[in-house]
Design brief:
single chain, 373 residues, alpha/beta, eight-stranded mixed sheet, six-stranded parallel sheet, 14 helices, 16% strand
């Protein structure tokens, strides 16, 4: 079965929830016997990247222009797919899904994964929001099959379009806890004495809420570590940098991956996700896979992870968050508690199961179109 993937920047080690999803999912599908072709955007993957973990990469041009990058690359990609004729064209996210009707017109079998209503993100203007809503509509109406990563999104799709979807959530792979602490030394961190947030630097992640809450908590000998790529041309990034410089103990590491990111997760005292918008938060699941105590805003996507009520706080309520930070800093979980968390998240969110369910979805699409392989 030949699967062509469209709608993401690329991978490995490219920041973004969709990119992390694809980086975990497609090597497993390759092991299950699929031939995977990923259409990647030229600014994000090196020219020499042709094969990785059984996956073939097709590096196509994309402009590095916010609001146009995904649209233009998706248009180029769907015509490329029309030439290559995969068994399934799998489009990720509602923005790129705007080309789903064109894919169908080219005779392709199209699967669309809805990762969340991106038009709700604070960074987009009116025109971009309109295009994203149109992408969602055309993607959901024209796909041979719809996949959603949460029950919240399935309800959204049904309420708006009266169409059912297959719920296939994000997953986790239980990591091996590294014994090294080189990254802690590089950023002058002490194990179990820092709060961690790993995310893109975009307004809906609410870094400013967390910085303010950390300042109010006055945690002695603790630091706040913000991990993510910083674009110094971006207004929001500069606002976060300015705020961080005014608060002692706030550390911005820029984008980290591999062993460095593993070390930052492994030795954190607490993970906090204060965001106002999520699909199903991979970073939160990853924190749990390391056994980290976590706090998250009480938005529906975070609540769907299924943690106890004490792990959530009211979105945007900085005073309550500051108080909970103080409480959690005093509590500090032991090794047995962390192992229980790891076992819990591994049982509920397993990438191997995600891959098998995705493959089953492909097979159903092919059976319906009477294509056998």
């Amino acid at each position: 079965m030949r699967i062509m993937v469209l709608g993401l920047r690329g991978f490995p080690n490219v920041q973004g929830g969709v990119e992390q999803h694809a980086e975990q999912l497609y090597p497993l599908l390759a092991k299950l016997g699929c031939h995977i072709d990923v259409i990647a955007r030229s600014p994000y993957v090196p020219r020499e990247l042709r094969m990785w973990n059984g996956i073939t990469f097709h590096r196509l041009w994309a402009p590095r222009i916010r609001g146009l990058e995904a649209l233009i690359h998706s248009l180029i990609g769907v015509f490329y797919a029309g030439i290559k004729r995969p068994d399934i064209l799998h489009i990720h996210a509602v923005g790129p899904a705007i080309i789903a009707p064109l894919g169908r017109a080219l005779g392709l079998r199209v699967v669309v994964t809805h990762h969340g209503p991106d038009y709700d993100r604070e960074k987009w203007g009116r025109s971009a929001r309109w295009l994203l809503r149109l992408g969602e509509k055309w993607g959901m109406l024209c796909a041979n099959q719809r996949i959603v990563i949460s029950k919240v999104i399935r309800k959204l799709v049904f309420d708006k379009y009266r169409l059912d979807s297959v719920v296939i959530p994000n997953g986790v792979t239980l990591p091996k806890i590294p014994e090294t602490k080189e990254t802690l030394g590089r950023f002058s961190l002490v194990a179990k004495r820092y709060i961690l947030l790993v995310s893109r630097f975009v307004p809906e992640k609410r870094h400013l809420d967390l910085i303010e809450a950390f300042a109010m908590s006055r945690l002695l000998d603790w630091k706040l570590v913000l991990v993510g790529e910083v674009d110094r041309r971006d207004r929001y990034c500069m606002k976060v940098l300015s705020s961080a410089e005014q608060i002692p103990g706030v550390v911005i590491t820029d984008f980290q991956f591999g062993q460095a990111l593993q070390e930052l997760y492994s030795y954190a005292g607490l993970f906090v996700l204060p965001s106002s918008h999520e699909g199903l938060p991979i970073a939160l699941l990853e924190a749990l896979s390391y056994g980290l105590p976590v706090l998250a805003s009480d938005i529906p996507a975070n609540l769907e992870v299924g943690l106890p009520e004490t792990n959530y706080f009211p979105l945007g309520n900085v005073a309550i968050l500051a108080g909970v930070l103080c409480e959690r800093a005093v509590e500090q979980s032991d090794g047995a508690q962390r192992e229980r968390l790891r076992a819990w998240v591994s049982e509920r969110y397993c990438w191997t199961e995600v891959a098998q369910r995705t493959l089953d979805t492909y097979k159903k699409v092919l059976r319906r179109s009477k294509i056998y392989w």
